[in-house]
Amino acid sequence: MKDTEALSRTALGVFRLNGQFLAVSEQLARPAGLTAAWWQVLGAVLHEPLPVAGIARAMGITRQSVQRIADLLVEKGLAEYRTNPAHRRAKLVAPTEEGRAAIRRITPGHSGLAARLADELGEEQFAETVRVLERLSEAMHALETASKPQPLGTGQEP
């Protein structure tokens, strides 16, 4: 298989998977009163509060879309803004107890889907799939980083 064909098939497969994951995420999140996007942002801050830009980087989405969702979550009482000791203007987003409870309502469906997917793929193939997708993401990030212009004074010629 040629590199261009491999890239095209990979991209189409990832786009299809994205659509499938978004659809199932909406189904899982709806009974908890969330959307897939709200779940995604709340999930990013479950273990530690993050600034909007940090959530965007972790999730691979734009800062503006995270800001819009964070504002909605705060308005709905599912998240709160906290003071960020590292940056006065970039507040931290943290889930409220109500937000944590909503995530807990999703957990049984999420666990059930994970078990069914593991049964379908097999444990080893499931783990390999995770490894390959993480490696692909790392490679894409490396290419993005390498293609960005470097600021002057970093040892690279203009």
TrEMBL record:
Signal peptide: none annotated. Pfam families: MarR_2. Residues 1-138 form the HTH marR-type domain. It comes from the Bacteria. This is MarR family winged helix-turn-helix transcriptional regulator. It comes from Streptomyces monticola. The lineage of its organism: Bacteria, Bacillati, Actinomycetota, Actinomycetes, Kitasatosporales.
